[in-house]
Write a structure and sequence with these properties.
- With 344 residues, the chain is α+β, with helices and mostly antiparallel strands.
- Helices cover 26% and strands 26% of the residues.
- A hairpin with an 8-residue loop joins strand 4 and strand 5.
- Helix 5 packs across helix 6.
- The protein is elongated.
């Protein structure tokens, strides 16, 4: 690829070039270890440029030493926006390197759209907020939508706001302790709990419907086959599934809620779980099903769940547990985008 013009003049001795083999190790020496699990995942976005899938990645060199990198790439599951990630060595921040990288990558995306390779040039990105910077209580009722709990003084937020990004979503990883929710009595209620194979077509359809319903903020084009591959297949680490039905399947009971485990063996650490529900249920019924299944999952052992604020069936339950000290936030991430509706 030819590196496009970076716009703002780069500092003396700094130039941009395409990502090359070995850059990850060279940058790691300067950047140091990632701050958290999300930071580790975000660095994995950096990759060689390609046309299928479409991705462009640039590195900023200072006197021949890689000091910063950034990437934009397309996602077939969420086609509305391109992912963007940039990182600069801490001691070199504030010199305009991230701005130069983003400007060059935007030019690459515009060129690809003009050639018919991309349908969009809108971007999304994310950053984590330190746990010790989080408020101790849930947001006020008036604080709804993407702006709730959004930091105003975070360095990433300041940079993104200046580049045309606005808050889109909050995503958290929350650990729930054992025995903090009273488990429902199943006898005589008609409720049925059942183990299902992760390859179950019924389960895959339920997962796909849930995923689509809770991602209106970043619409997904997730087919049943993609749901199986991305959320339930062997490569995901999915090791088991439990479903809750309002009545046994033999009596026509469908899946009201489901839980997928991504922890292969029982340990003292919280089990990594995806908890979902049938989006066609009335909100009160969906929340009751989700709460019941969460209570059953945590009867003896802790679990950790990733939850977006768009999951308004589950978030009130978890917010209450966090407020009372029965759950704790392990990771709090903010997603920002360039095409947020009603953004200032």
């Amino acid at each position: 690829m030819t590196v496009p013009d970076a716009g703002p003049q780069l500092p003396a001795g700094v130039f941009l070039r395409p990502w090359a083999e070995g850059d990850d190790l060279r940058l790691l020496e300067l950047w140091g270890d990632p701050a958290d699990a999300q930071h580790h995942q975000d660095r994995a976005m950096l990759r060689p440029s390609s046309n299928s899938p479409w991705a462009r990645c640039l590195v900023a060199e200072d006197e021949g030493i890689p000091v910063a990198a950034a990437v934009v790439y397309a996602s077939s599951v969420h086609p509305q926006r391109l992912w963007f990630y940039a990182e600069t060595a801490r001691e070199l921040r504030g010199r305009g390197l991230a701005t130069a990288l983003l400007t060059a990558l935007r030019a690459e995306a515009e060129g690809a759209r003009a050639e018919g390779m991309l349908a969009t040039t809108e971007l999304k990105t994310r950053f984590a907020v330190a746990a010790d910077a989080l408020p101790e209580t849930a947001p006020d009722a008036a604080e709804t939508g993407a702006a709730a709990h959004q930091p105003t003084d975070h360095p990433a937020a300041s940079f993104l706001a200046g580049q045309g990004f606005s808050p889109l979503q909050r995503s958290r990883r929350i650990a729930v302790g054992p025995g903090v929710i009273t488990a429902p009595e199943l006898d005589g209620t008609g409720l049925a709990v059942e183990d299902l194979a992760t390859g179950s077509v019924e389960l895959t359809q339920a997962v796909a419907a849930f995923y689509a319903a809770t991602h209106g903020w970043d619409p997904s084009d997730l087919s049943v086959g993609q749901a199986q591959q991305l959320l339930l297949g062997p490569a995901t680490g999915a090791s088991g599934a439990v479903v809750l039905r309002s009545k046994p399947k033999a009596q026509g009971g469908g899946i009201d809620a489901f839980a997928l485990s991504y922890t292969p063996e029982r340990t003292e650490d919280p089990t990594d779980v995806l908890l979902g529900w049938n989006p066609e249920l009335a909100p009160a019924d969906a929340q009751a099903a989700a709460a019941s299944l969460l209570a059953l999952l945590t009867t003896q052992y802790p679990v950790q769940l990733e939850v977006d604020d768009s999951m308004d069936i589950l978030t009130p339950i978890l917010d209450q547990l966090v407020t009372t000290g029965h759950a704790r936030v392990l990771l709090d991430s903010r997603i920002w985008a360039t095409d947020v509706p009603d953004a200032p």
